[in-house]
Amino acid sequence: MQKNNDNMNTLSLNAEILQALSKIADDENSLRQALKAIRDIASRKEKEECDSDAYIEKNLTEAFKELKNIKEGMAETYSIEEVINGI
Prior knowledge:
Largest sheet: none
Oligomer: single chain
Helix content: over 70%
Number of helices: 4
Number of strands: 0
C-alpha cells in the first residue's frame, strides 16, 4: 500500500511542479532560475547516490569479478596504447 501512496505523491508533486512552471513559462529569467535549481538538486542527488555504501560496494564487486576473470584467462586486457589507438 505504501508503494501506491508514494506513486500518488510523486504524481501529485510532478503535477504541481508542471503547474508552477506553466505560470512562469513566458519568463525566460524565471525559467533559467528554475532550471538551475533543478539541476543543483539533481547534482546533489547524484553525488549522494555515488557516495552511498551500496554504490561503492556494487562497483567494488564488479571490479573484483573483472579481476578474477582476468586472472582466470576469461577476459582480455589491453595496454593503454591499445586503448588509445583503438586496438
